[in-house]
Amino acid sequence: MTKFTLSKDQLQDLIDENKYSVDPDKKFLSRCIDGRYENESGLPALAMPGGDAGELALLFATANTYGFSVKNEDAYKILTEIIGGEKNLGIHTDEHVSIQIQNSKLKIKNYNSKVKNDELVNSVLMGCGHIKQIGLDLEAYKLTNEQLTFIKTVTAQAVKKGAKQTSLRGEHMESAVVIIKGNWGIYPRYTFDTSSGNTLTEIFIYHASLANERRKLFAEKLLKQKAVELFDGLDADYLYQALSDVGENHLMETAKRLASGLSLYEVTFGNQGEQKIEEMGKV
Ligand SMILES: [Zn+2]
């Protein structure tokens, strides 16, 4: 299969076919930037690196960068309140990891609950490129191993309690990185008719408007419920700005690693779904 580098015209075709308006009741549910999600109704429009696991990583990295402390458990609780409970966590792995687990089950003689639990903590989120890259280069993402372990542990516990870890299928076929502004989402998969047949492509998506809106609320709640303590005089707007800055770093660190050389586009939607596409160069 040919791997596309998506042109602006091709992106326009993809958007015409794949755009959908944001459901206001579900606007804070998240998914990852990964392009392998199925085009299914109900797919959260809010795409961000690592979904909710990535947002926790972002908070911890911001604390490390700006020198403030976070109460990890409280921060996690606040995030789950914003999304309407742990059951709604936006987290994923992929079928490659799922198959490895299936195979190791067959190999291990004493596949008891302890082994199963350890395996879940070790393997959870491992099909997510963003979380995987964080683990490979904690320094670049300004995270500690303890913080990453915390994220994996709470996620594994949530999965045990019934939260859905989406297992994405297929290979990475992303051909562009698209930053969305406005109140519309985009499904990431698209099949082109070409002279040599049908070709599947996918796009990495970051929904800047929804990510910002949710981050503002997250910052307010973190301070109000004292999960984060800032120096005197610094307020929720400061925390929000800090999260935004580090959020951009996290997005670009992962884009550099997983989407190097692809075109970067900014798509701004109007209320009726009309849109402006701007080319922002290459990743
Ligand atoms: Zn991911």
From TrEMBL:
Q: What protein name applies here?
A: Uncharacterized protein
Task: Write down the species.
Answer: Candidatus Roizmanbacteria bacterium CG09_land_8_20_14_0_10_41_9
